[in-house]
Structures are given as C-alpha cells and as structure tokens.
Write a structure and sequence with these properties.
With about 475 residues, the protein is of the alpha+beta class. It is built from 13 helices and 18 strands. The longest helix is centred in the middle third of the chain and has 16 residues.
Length: about 475
C-alpha cells in the first residue's frame, strides 16, 4: 500500500485565507527531487515558490492552474519516490482527507509548503505507549510533541532544526517518513550544471529553471534590476504561447460581454478600498506647486552624473521631511487609537499587470534623493516581478500616488488604511502665472492631500501642505 500524503494550500502570513495556483512546475506522475520547484502560489500581493522538501511524485494534481483555494485545502496528493499508487488508493485518500490546522501549518511551514499529512496507520497502539519516552523538559515544540506521541516516534535520535536545537513539527514529521532505499538505477552524471552559467547575470532560480527546461540564457534579455535575468524571463520562454496572448485582442464582440474573475490582488484591493471609502471620512486639501527650481536642480544632477532622480523621488524626500516636522500627519489609525511614528515610512504606489501595490521606502527622511531613487526603482522592479516580501509592502505611515506620467493633471486618491493620509500628484504643466506685477510662465504641479478626518484636522493638514510646498519650491534643502 502506497504511503500517500496531502499537499495542501500553504499559509504565508496571518492574513492569508486563500491562494491561487498560478502554475504547476511538475507534471502529474513525474518524479521530482528534493529542492525542485513544484508550484507557484499567488497570494494577494506576491507569488511564492514552493520547493520539494523531499524526493517524491504527484500521483494526482487536484488544483487547476489559475484556481483559487482556501488555506489548508487539498490541492494535490503526494507519494514517495518509486511508488505507483492505484487510482482507487488515491480516490480513497482524497475522500478521507480533512484540512489540517492552519495555525500549526503557518508556524511549521514558514516559506515552505505545509507539512504533508501522513495516512493514519491502521496500527496506532504503539503510539500511545511511546508518549512516556518524551520527558517534560524535552526541547521540543508542543505541536511536535503531540505528533510524536500520537505516532509513537522516538525523538532520541532526532536533531532539532529550531532555535537552540529545538525539535520542530517538521523534524518529527520527517523522522516519521519511511526510509528510502539507496542504490540501483542508471548512473547519474554529477557534473555541476551551473558551472556553464557562472558568467550569466541571472538569479539562482532563473539558472535552475533554465537548466530544468533547456533554456539558453545567453539568448535572453533580462528585465530585472540592471537587466538581470529573472524567473519571469525564463518562464516566458518555457510557455511562450500562454504568455504571448495579448489581452486587448480578446475583447468581446460588439453587443456581447465578457466575465473576468478578479485575481487575489484585485480582490484585496477591492476589499481595502471599499472599506476605506465606506468607513473613513475623507477630506481633501489641494495646492499648486511651482517646480521650475526642482527641474533646474535635476538638470544639474543629470549634467554632472549622466542620470538623475525622478520628480517623484524629490517629492518622496520632501514628504519625508514634512512628515517629521508634522508628526500628526505621519500616523496610522487603529480603531480609537492613533499611532504616531518617529520615522517616515512612505508607501509609493506602483502599477503592475495584476493591480496596484504600494512598496514602502522605510525611514525615507534619512535617505538622500539619489538613495530614494535607487530604493524606489528596486522596489518597483520587485513589485512588477511579484517578488516583494510582506514586510516590503505592509504598513507604512504615508502614501504617495503619482499619475502625472500618464498626463493626469489632478486627482484625489483613496486613503490606504490604516494610514491617515495619501498625497496625489498630477502632471507638471506649463501655465501663465503672475509674478509680482508681471506675467510669466512656470511649471505647475497640482497636489491633493486626502486626510482621515477622524485623526487629522484641516489646520494640521494645511500646515503640512504649506511645509511641503515650501520644500518643493525651494528644493536646496532636499539635497542638503
């Protein structure tokens, strides 16, 4: 009888309740090795890579590519290496599966897939007798202790992988797996496949995928930071037909409509912004700012170095300094509590093909404009590649949304809770203005500050905007 185990939807982070199987990287019935990439799981904001913890094979892939599944829900059946379970065995396992405790899974799994749940052995009597072997002061987690006692596993020979050698749930589970016979089979070529890729500027995962799928990295142009070849570049060559279908060509015929399911990110955006608009009393403060001095400063930087920060980078720097001067705007609102922050952690809205995401420039007041520029570019590249970590986009004390590059003159943004304010930035437009008693032309940017009236009064927001305008119109302090 085959030793079948569950491969369930993993849980990353406290708030995750469901995930999308973006792609299966192994086929049903094809053996894989420890460390092989098994699946890409898409959450609200990022795409996670699930690697094999041990050799094995999927006799049944249950989840469909693109399907959404709850945390702990069975998405595949896992078997050991060399096993060939019958369809009846797999069907019986699926019928008897019950979702695992997601709280335990979240603690034990981390960035790895949830620990496979072994089929309950028909002879479980020895498990209870072994409970006495685990001393009360044993360095073992509660979940691991319960698992070992239930299955009669002797922990004496188990080396703990947790802090200070603590035995974890995963350690005990791995010890419960049957031993794998070594030897036999065809000779294996041990020549390192990565040696030929040492000179290729690509991520380790991109090199591994290229080796698995026979992709020549020398023929690829990288889209990552500094033209580094990343996972998405290799996957585009593996599945050119699926990735090359332009969305615009699939528009509905005249008189018909098309139903498109929301992605997890789009649903998260919908929930957050609907809650924000329905529960937060917004008010808006608008101001016109002359940026000719900033443009001249930027031109000088470009002439000196060949490249220069964007206007948005200067705005991030100016907002950071203004937030430190006006801490009543540098806040989050949690119920009836207002949390003021000592540093300006500014979220910058980035548009991706899956929706809007706001990576955070942390302690922006301590960074130069050039450092902010490098940080924003790196975060934007990671956001568009789906590689942001939760700590890189969750939280923040203030947000900036800039649509000026799309030619939008002025707009009002919705607050990103629990933050208390967001700045909307329009395009720079040459306009005639009065300077003294003369008429002149200047480049004007329209700013709109959306404030949470529960925590920020109009006068407080107005003082912030006055400080911000002064910093932008006299930008010498931004480069000090």
């Amino acid at each position: 009888m085959a030793d079948l185990r569950a491969f369930a939807m993993p849980k990353w982070g406290i708030e995750m309740t469901e995930g999308v199987v973006a792609d299966w990287m192994v086929a049903e019935g094809v053996p894989f090795k420890k460390g092989d990439l098994l699946a890409l799981i898409e959450t609200d904001k990022i795409t996670n890579e699930v690697e094999a913890e041990a050799d094995g094979m999927f006799p049944r892939l249950i989840a469909e590519t693109g399907g959404t599944y709850q945390v702990g829900e069975l998405i595949a059946v896992l078997a050991g290496p060399g096993e060939t379970p019958s369809d009846e065995e797999v069907d019986a396992f699926i019928a008897g599966f019950t979702p695992a405790n997601t709280q335990v899974a979240s603690k034990a799994a981390g960035n790895a897939p949830p620990t496979p749940r072994p089929v309950e052995a028909p002879k479980a009597a020895p498990a209870k007798a072994a409970a006495a072997r685990i001393a009360a002061d044993a360095n073992i987690s509660p979940a691991a202790r319960a698992f070992a006692e239930d299955r009669g596993i002797d922990i004496a020979g188990i080396g703990g992988s947790g802090p200070n050698g603590r035995i974890t749930f995963q350690d005990v589970q791995q010890a419960s797996l049957p031993s794998v016979a070594v030897g036999g089979g065809a000779p294996v070529d041990l020549t390192p496949i990565g040696n030929a890729l040492d000179d290729v500027y690509a991520s380790p995962l991109a090199k591994r995928l290229a080796a698995q799928h026979g992709v020549d990295l020398a023929k690829l142009s990288g889209t990552g930071p500094k033209n580094r070849i990343c996972k998405a570049d290799v996957l585009a060559m593996v599945k050119p037909a699926a990735d090359a279908v332009p969305v615009v060509l699939g528009r509905p015929a005249a008189g018909s409509s098309e139903i498109v399911r929301m992605s997890p990110m789009r649903k998260a955006i919908a929930r957050a912004l609907s809650h924000s608009k329905a529960t937060i009393p917004h008010f808006y403060l608008r101001s016109k700012v002359r940026i000719d001095a900033m443009l001249a400063l930027r031109a000088q930087a470009k002439a000196a170095t060949g490249e220069a920060p964007s206007i948005n980078d200067y705005i991030v720097r100016a907002c950071a300094l203004a937030l430190i001067r006006h801490p009543d705007v540098n806040i989050q609102v949690h119920g009836d509590e207002i949390h003021r922050f000592g540093s300006a952690d500014i979220a910058v809205a980035v548009a991706t093909d899956k929706g809007l995401i706001t990576p955070i420039v942390k302690q922006a007041e301590t960074l130069s404009v050039s450092a902010i520029s490098r940080t924003v570019k790196a975060l934007a590249d990671k956001a568009r590649a789906g590689g942001l970590q939760p700590e890189e986009f969750q939280g923040g004390s203030f947000s900036i949304s800039n649509l000026g590059m799309f030619g939008i003159d002025q707009f009002d943004a919705i607050i990103n809770p629990p933050q208390g304010a967001i700045l909307a930035v329009g395009a720079g437009v040459r306009q005639p203005i009065e300077i003294g008693n003369a008429l002149a032309f200047a480049t004007i940017v329209e700013l709109s500050l959306s404030c949470d009236h529960r925590a920020i009064d109009g006068a407080v927001g107005a003082e912030f905007m006055r400080t911000l305008k002064g910093l932008l119109e006299e930008p010498s302090s931004l480069t000090a």
